[in-house]
Design brief:
single chain, 418 residues, UDP-n-acetylglucosamine1-carboxyvinyl-transferase, Chain, 2 domains, 4-stranded mixed β-sheet, 23 strands, globular, binds uridine-diphosphate-N-acetylglucosamine
Amino acid sequence: MGKYLISGGKKLCGEISVESAKNSVLPILAASTLTDEKVVIKCCPKIADVISLINILNSLGVETAFENENLIINSSGMNNYTIPERLSKELRASVFMLGALISRFKKAEISFPGGCNIGKRPIDLHLKSLKEMGVNSYIDNGFVKCSAEKILAKKITLSYPSVGATENLMLSAVLADGKTEIRNCAREPEIVDLMRFLNTMGAKIYGGGTSTILIDGVKKLHGTVYQPMSDRIEAGTFLIATAITGGELQLNNCNAKNICTLIHKLCDNTCKIAVKNDIIYMRSNGRGKSFNLHTGPYPDFPTDLQSQMAVLASVASGSSTITENVFERRFAYVDELNKMGADIRVKGRTAYVNGVLQLTGTKVRALDLRGGAALIIAGLNAEGITQVSGAEHILRGYLDLDKKFRSLGADIKLIDGD
Ligand code: UD1
């Protein structure tokens, strides 16, 4: 429980550093359990989703400890392949443990995973492709139970480039006997990061970032020290916030290549952006112009920045359209944004946004992680006080969001209460 109180209208100015990517750290944590040797994840963000996955690892007998920002993982005592229902319901990423557990024990039991309220989020693609690798699964009392006599290295073609299914297949195949090929796999930067991480453990994985990944199974993985990639969604959230409020931002520890679709959109939208090594500099004069946007699997525009862009469209001059092609229920934030004076109508997968001059502060509720971040950004723009409840959704994926915005000059605080 918790809520953000925001007094809007301040320009954002200053410098922040981007954290390690949530969506990279989570599968990497699962992958860390594939060796009995020590693994160190450098700069591991203590966000709620990461803590939930650490709790899951601990429940399976894995020892973990933070040494400052670094997470130390020792899986030599891992002795359990059943994830307790309460813990798997806490986060969607518990599904990655499927691949890791299958690799390690040839067995896995997880209850249907939880996570954001943004659509059905089935795991049929995961189970179907695992079946091709010799993993049988059935549903028993809300649990997915998987087992295999042997993991078969195969050529698998995904019917959709699912990020989670690609990651699970990588985790399942890395210790299999033989060569696995995953076609039509996801090409997200987080897939490349998982490949790099596993390769530092001794895996032989090629082709991450393209639509075919090759995995040459190895007998054993060893310990490693690894720094995950920076969070392109956190970076994008701060860039969009600065585009909306006006101001100047320096983002450190940020790979601009991973968010080039966003950078192009913001440059089209009257922002000035310069990139030098891993630093992005941005200047915005505030109100931009309308645009059309559609989300899709990487390298298309990321669905995780769709709601934040809807806020930008809400205060732009003219009418914009935003089409969501990845998740079917990712417009839940629209009713809340409209309470703040936005003019958005959703029809099917498309939101039609008529820009208004100014949003107005009121009480709104975050219903999911990225939709919640969008409401915060709206509050930074709005006239008067905005109260965003449902902070627990936002805390799943953003570390010190309020503190970072305050350091940029925003008037925002996180307080207890519903
Ligand atoms: C990951 C990210 C999430 C991001 C999403 C898309 C993590 C922890 N989460 O989620 O932040 O928004 O990628 O970039 O990395 N689908 C099926 N059946 C399946 C699997 C997926 O129908 O078995 C559908 C989903 O319902 C969704 C679409 O495929 O409509 C994309 O899902 P997927 O790429 O698997 O996303 P996640 O891995 O869940």
